[in-house]
TrEMBL record:
InterPro entries: Alkb, AlkB-like, AlkB-like_sf, Oxoglu/Fe-dep_dioxygenase_dom
UniProt name for this protein: Nucleic acid dioxygenase ALKBH1
Domain Fe2OG dioxygenase per the UniProt entry, residue ranges: 185-318
Species name: Nothobranchius furzeri
Start and end residues of each stretch annotated as Disordered: 325-367
Pfam families in UniProt: 2OG-FeII_Oxy_2
Residues noted as binding Fe cation in the record, renumbered to the chain: H203, D205, H259
A GO term from the CC aspect: cytoplasm
Compartments (UniProt record): Nucleus
């Protein structure tokens, strides 16, 4: 990597973002950490007794003793779990992200410029068409669950809330408990749908009112380069690959650090093969949240995921006993001015709205 990319200074994050986003010539990926290659996993930081085998299997996770978890020097509170999913169970989560979570009453980017009847059955309207360009599914950029994030005012509010999916809460609760955060309450999620030319600008997730609980991130489908910076915009970031099934836990000081996704990359063959459904319901334990994915559904999911990535971040918004502040008339006014989409540059999708979060610097994609 060019020396200028790793230097400190005000633009270190932006420089690295642009370095990895560059198409021509493509960047050198040798300095990107790939946790698949690392062997010194951190067993000690996982709370083994907090998650038994059966509870893990019910949400599609391996027993904790088989998880490969890593912390990163210089990023306290950050934990990377290299694909803790049981072979075959990622397919269920992919189907949930594509078929179930975009359904009403959840909110997605398409609702910003289409009527409720047009966005009613994204899956049914897209599934049989997926060979043709630009189905609704392919135009999907984000979905929000639970407390629906307001992209205009950058807030959550009590009056824009729908039920959080119980199986996704079960997954988030069990992973966070295993990482030493018992009692995590999944109150909001943002699902990001990336095409091969999408990126996500530099931001901090600070709209949640309680930052003592971690932010959990789950990735499926194609791989990505993830840049993890520090609490200050000028802190030079660490670049790492995120492959399908990988999980990140951002807690403590790393809960409020700058991060970004400059690039989506084809998944290595081995990661793509983990995605395939197991094809047998018999491996699922009793009471499992993970259901078998039908061949018909998988045909659509696998075609979609061949050049797309889905990331799910699960957030606790409120601390114990905390409530939302009263809404002032001015913030109500602001929240009505919703952008058409989130914070990615989605070059191919024609959705060019950006989300600038947390009063951070201007979006790097603009420069
Ligand atoms: O796609 C990712 O890995 C990151 C997503 C993210 O940072 C967010 O949704 O806030
Ligand atoms: Fe984020």
């Amino acid at each position: 990597m060019a020396a200028s990319v790793v230097e400190g200074g005000e633009d270190a994050f932006r420089k690295m973002f642009k370095f990895y986003k560059r198409r021509d010539p493509p960047p050198d990926f040798r300095d990107v950490a790939d946790f698949r290659d690392y062997c010194n996993s951190l067993f000690t930081c996982l709370s083994r007794t907090s998650l038994n085998h059966e509870d893990a299997a019910q949400v599609g996770l391996k027993p904790i003793r088989d998880w490969r978890a890593f912390s990163l020097q210089g990023h306290p509170g950050f934990l990377f779990i290299s694909n803790p999913f049981l072979r075959g169970s990622q397919a269920f989560w992919v189907r949930q992200c594509l078929k179930t979570y975009p359904q009403k009453p959840n909110v997605c980017n398409l609702d910003m410029h289409m009527s409720p009847s047009e966005t009613q059955d994204i899956w049914d309207k897209s599934a049989y068409l997926l060979r043709q360009p630009k189905t609704l599914l392919e135009k999907l950029r984000w979905v929000t669950l639970g407390y629906h994030y307001n992209w205009g005012s950058k807030t959550y509010s009590a009056d824009h809330h729908t039920a959080f999916p119980s199986e996704l809460h079960a997954l988030a609760f069990r992973i966070t408990a295993a990482c030493g955060f018992p009692g995590f309450s999944s109150e909001a999620a943002i699902l990001n749908y990336y095409r091969s030319d999408s990126s996500l600008g530099i931001h901090v997730d600070e709209s949640e009112l309680d930052h003592s609980q971690p932010l959990l991130s789950l990735s499926f489908g194609q791989s990505a380069i993830f840049l993890l910076g520090g609490p200050h915009r000028q802190d030079p970031p660490t670049a790492m690959f995120m492959h399908s099934g990988d999980v990140m836990v951002m807690s403590g000081p790393s809960r409020l650090t700058y991060h970004a996704v400059p690039r989506i990359l084809p998944a290595p063959l081995e990661c793509a093969s983990f995605l395939e459904p197991s094809g047998s319901a018999s491996v699922l334990p009793d009471g499992s949240a993970v259901e078998p994915v039908t061949e018909e559904d998988w045909a659509v999911c696998s075609r979609y995921i061949q050049n797309s990535r889905v990331n799910v971040t699960v957030r606790q918004v409120l601390g114990l006993g905390q409530s939302f502040p009263e809404t002032t008339p001015s913030s109500v006014f602001q929240s009505e001015k919703l952008p058409a989409n989130g914070y990615r540059d989605g070059a191919a999708g024609g959705d060019n709205g950006k989300r600038k979060r947390s009063g951070s610097d201007s979006n790097p994609d603009k420069t």
